[in-house]
Predict the structure.
Amino acid sequence: MRLFPKTWVLLALTGLLAVANAWTMSPAAAPSELPSLPAVVPDEVTRIVISSPIDRLEIDRTAFVRGHPESERWDIVAPLEYAADVAQVRALLRIYGTGVSMDARVDSGNLKDYQLEDQDAKVVELYTDGATPALQVIVGRTVGPTSSFVRLPGAETVYRAAVGPRQRYDQAAADWRDRVVLSVDKDTVTALNIQQGSDIPRGRATLALTRSPTAPSAPPRWTIAGVLGTAPDSAASSALSAAIDSAVVESVARALGHIRAGDIHNTSFPGGFEAPIAIATLTTASRVHRIVLGSASDDKTAFVKVDERPEVFAVSGQLTRMLTQPALAYRNREIFAFDPTLVRRLALTEGSITVEIERGADATTDSRSDGRSDGTTSWNVLRPLNMDVDDGLADKLTGSLSALRASGIPDGAAFVEGPGGLLITFADGSTRALDFGQPERDGEGRQVVRVRSAGSVYQIRVQTLDEIERVFGR
């Protein structure tokens, strides 16, 4: 093939451009050639500084006993003076605890494009001892969920590194404040007192509860020290004196012992503390904690003051519901407690219709002289005869009924009997009956029921009623 002069010229130019391009291109850095930030052991860090030309955040470790993380305390010392959120501080230190390798070299210069100019960047410094930081890195714009652009002090090379998003370093000092309002292990609480309404100005407890000593493996047991807000012969006092639901008290003690604020307001915030609606005290071996619930609280947000702290804390409205519930809400919620294998018949009545099923002995079970049955049983329909029963659902229902607990306690209104109920017959001929109230349900989907023998009235969830009716084909 014959090449014309113009072709030779084009080939020569192409070759020269290729050589020039290869000469000027910087080779991509291999991972081993990229720098790394030094590892800084979190337990050895004593100060954190995050700064820019216009602001400076300083957080100091003020207490720590190695091997006892609960002793750790960090304080914001500039520009404000408050306790710092230990969990938030530890999350930052974990990033640098094992060292951070640069993921890639991105650029050299052009710092403005990466928010790495001095006036835009954040300088992060970790101190372990003395005035010289053990780690110093300049953080720029976020580049991914866990990464940002960074550079080293005095250098203009831009890297990408997994130091977290820039938002972490842009937080104001107030965002680093400790939001743990109270942290008390519920197992150390020996007494719980709650004051409500008119009992507050009188300085007396609406409900006073004490934890009774139990074996280490036994569930906690709470008893009434006093129900001073009710008359001694009132329904509330007699019902509570008969039985306290320790599980309910434990849940209240747990919630009060672990309060974390969503927002923190200054002491002048109008939370309604001139006329609080409830005051709770938690007593431990070492001190008494006091939680005051302001009248501006509602089901969504509770405004509380705790101990001698001047701030007003906005916390979950769950606290409002717990501290304002009536004394009867602490009544034992156990409806039934029996061995499910001793159940022989179940009968559901709805109006004039009764469906009754009986546990039968078959090839899959061993019938025993004590009335107990082993394994999965079969169930037979006694009436009406034109229906079947699901053995698995019937077994599941007897198990649920054997440990049935109420989801709530009604406010004392008289029980209005509805058209239905459940009768449980045992191997020894004894029975338990649950009467259903009128089918109206409250805002939480609960219906009133009554244990016939005791006359005790409870609320159970609609899902429980649905489980009962499903077994009987209703």
